[in-house]
Amino acid sequence: MFPFYRLFTIVVVVLRYQLDELVLSGMNHRCARFLLKVVRLGRQPKLARGVRLRLALETLGPIFVKFGQVLSTRRDLIPLDIAEQLSLLQDRVPSFPSAIAVQTIEKALGASPDVLFKQFSMEPIASASIAQVHFAQLHDGRDVAVKVLRPGMLKVINKDLALMRILASWVERLAPDGRRLKPREVVAEFDKYLHDELDLVREASNCSQLRRNFELKDRAGLLLVPEVVWEYTASTVFTMERMQGIPINQVERLRAAQVDLKDLARKGVEIFFTQVFSDGFFHADMHPGNILVSEKPESLGQYIALDFGIVGSLSEFDKNYLAQNFLAFFRRDYRRVAQLHIESGWVPADTREEELEGAVRAVCEPYFDRPLSQISLGQVLLRLFQTSRRFNVEIQPQLVLLQKTLLNVEGMGRDLDPELDLWDTAKPYLEKWMYQRIGPSGLYKRMSQEAGQWAQLLPQIPRLIVSNLDRPDHSVRLNQELTQLRQAYQQTNRLLTVLCVILLLAIGVVLKAIW
């Protein structure tokens, strides 16, 4: 059944916050200008367009809030002022009754919390649009956090997504930049993201992978990730080790705990680049609410990661492309940046290299004239994405997610240390990483990885050579067949030529008879 009442509610909210004016104001057609005058009724909006859109999404409820949060990451598609406002959206959702949380746990895990846990807090510690969190204690004494999915979410999500698809098709047809903004593709991406987030096993597996990545010896002291309690985890319940620390944005508390803020800022950059270039797997929701700093004596100053619903993945191609781009930026080698864009296939092959080089130089040079501590690597990447529209670049979703995460990391780092030089911190790491990839150690590592495959193929090579030499020689027969085909082709051409001459003569005779 089509949700007409929900659609009516959306229309009322759109009119209340003058979002229709937001769309019409971007059109130059005279009919649009006339409609704009009718809509405004002689009054101008009191609030900025980004603020109005944010307030409208908050009014429409948690699913639309989530959509705004995801849309805020697509700064390659939407204006910067709107993206900044959407990034302020937060899930202000009341907790659902604890009795329902207990029922969900019992249904998912086959027993009530009283049986499963030594202690279970009925009062949720946090509540968001998708789930809420309760603290508990296992029978072996371990403190855990239990994330419980909000009931009935699938039905609500599917209804709102159906309406979003309708609105997206309207925007695509009516908005001046409708096709470039790809609203239907954005809604489809949001659909996938939401349904993934509804499966807490997926989030738990992301958590487990990130923890395993940072258990390596050379990464000791960088990042703490909670351990997943798999026996108490299902698609609607996620049980993990309880982590305690100071939120990353509470700088005064960090100082009082005697945390070295400059070292903390540098470690944040190292964690980010380690995830991106070494692992190709990164936490993509690194806002202050999801990042804590340990205050325990044995792990003082270590980062703690929470909430693993959004992660990014990069292929080997993506990692090489990004690393070479960053290094080219550091060296001001804009021709190399242009070449990389063309070689990657993300720019049409007929793009003029010198034209793209000039556009990249126009983006980057103003930043290099500033002190390094004032340069934002995330903003440079953002400007490049915006410039790329001129060259019909299809920005890859994983790179947009990366750029959004980089802005988060940069913002947190500058809050901790206003003089943080992200470029200077990142350049040695990238150069070392590139050397490990293309230097002798990188060659040896890749050969070691391929050794198992080669070990299977090498013994077969003599047999394959002998087998190939023993094959009968069909080249003579093939040459004969090709010669016959060529002769038949030539004969057909001669026949067609004769027919064309006869046809022309016949036409000439007919025309002469008529005249």
UniProtKB/TrEMBL annotation:
Keywords: ATP-binding, Cell inner membrane, Cell membrane, Kinase, Membrane, Nucleotide-binding, Transferase, Transmembrane, Transmembrane helix, Ubiquinone, Ubiquinone biosynthesis
Boundaries of every ABC1 atypical kinase-like domain copy: 89-340
Membrane spanning residue stretches: 495-514
A Pfam short name: ABC1
Domain of life: Bacteria
Pathways per UniProt: Cofactor biosynthesis; ubiquinone biosynthesis [regulation]
Assigned protein family: Belongs to the protein kinase superfamily. ADCK protein kinase family.
Protein name: Ubiquinone biosynthesis regulatory protein kinase UbiB
